[in-house]
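Support request, priority: normal
Reporter: lab tech (M.K.)
Component: structure prediction queue

Hi team, I submitted a job for Nicotinate phosphoribosyltransferase from Candidatus Stercoripulliclostridium merdipullorum yesterday, and the status page still shows it as pending. I've pasted the exact input below so you can check whether something in the sequence is tripping the parser. The sequence length should be 474 residues. Please let me know if I need to resubmit or if it's stuck on your end.
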Amino acid sequence: MRNLTMMTDLYQLTMMNAYLKMGMADREAVFDVFYRSAPGLEFAVAAGLEQAVEYINNLHFTEEEIEYLKSLALFDEAFFDRLRKFRFTGDIFAVREGEIVFPTEPILTVRAPLFEAQLVETALLNIINHQTLIATKALKITQETTGAVSEFGLRRAQGPDAGIYGSRASMIGGCTSTSNVLAGQLFDVRISGTHAHSWVMSFPTELEAFRHYAEIYPENCLLLVDTYNTLKSGVPNAIKVFDELSAKGYRPVGIRLDSGDLAYLSKIARKMLDDAGYPDAKIFASGDIDENILSSLKSQGAKIDVWGIGTKLITASPNPALGGVYKLAAINLNGEWEPRMKFSDTPEKLTNPGFKTTYRIYGGDGMAAADLIALRSERFDETKPLTIFHPLETWKKTTFTDYRMRDLMVQVFDRGKQVYELPPLKEIIAFAARSREEFWEEYKRRVNPHRYKVDLSDGLYALKQSLLRANQEH
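Reply from support: The job had stalled in the queue. We restarted it manually and it finished. Here are the results:
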């Protein structure tokens, strides 16, 4: 396990040192990780908690790292003495990986001494932002097709970690396999792949290349047919090899298309395969595909069974970042917790104060109907009607009578000790699938999704308004 303690911004360290000098290092504070709304990010799939837990569990400064910090000539020995004893001693609450979350909802909450809570900001944002972004993109892609999707993005990822953990996140978002062998080994997920154009081009003829591949992998024969001419040579040569395999008692897996008009080529190739007696041969497709292209191909009746999607998935194009932030929500002053919020002339950028959680409200039909961000001290009686209202357009109200509520957050660390058992990735994937099914398609659709209600509880709304009034008076 890598020690990522030094994976932080310099200003975290300078603030920690300043807190120490001001006698504030042990003052407890609450910070929230959440993201703000952006086009294409009306909802997100939470991911990265496992790596965040590994990071927290391994926090410590080595002597080598301390020597490097000494070379900066910014800190004194009192600071380095504190770093030598550094361990995380606070609490962490988080939503489960695979949970659907919405803008402003806490994805992860840290309650810890300022000295500790400040250090972990950068790494937690790095981990949660990246994997949540890729998992969300994967969901947007996979929900546009009934066919399986394999993540093929390692070669286009922004570095090894982005490739490895992007593969993990894509599985949480709905992909069924990855081309990334290391990810398959690390996370125990299915890997998939065929051969490249270079295999075909390494032989005198396409047919010879296909035959040799089939001889080596008779039970897993999937042939790339677009090296020279898809319909005039690729598919006919594949069928010849399939006939030879069939004569030996094997059934071919199928063909892969990697270029050209995928809708047209897949429909003609499907007819050719069916007419040749291979209705069960799969048609795989790859080649710079995203959810918009998938939607278009689906509307054109493309005959594609499995998709290999790389660049636009692993880079989450066109969204370069989730935009998650880490904001102070409360601080303990002389034994009393005081709420904190960031003010802005833009209402959407006002932060929510206090120590919070999020409840998901389910209607009588069992489907998710709204989310309620609330103070952790608040209690709700599900036997009584519940009225919620829009936090900005307060005249918009909804009353629930037949409903149930679920707290989306679980405690992960209690006074520095991990108390949440991390599930294996296969369980996370299954949970993510169930989470997706809780929402009507209108909330998840690719274009103009219906706005899902995310409201504030009475207690949180009142607290926020009181801080706004106090700020105006000040």
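The chain has a mean pLDDT of 96. The radius of gyration is 26 Å. Let us know if anything else looks off. Ticket resolved.
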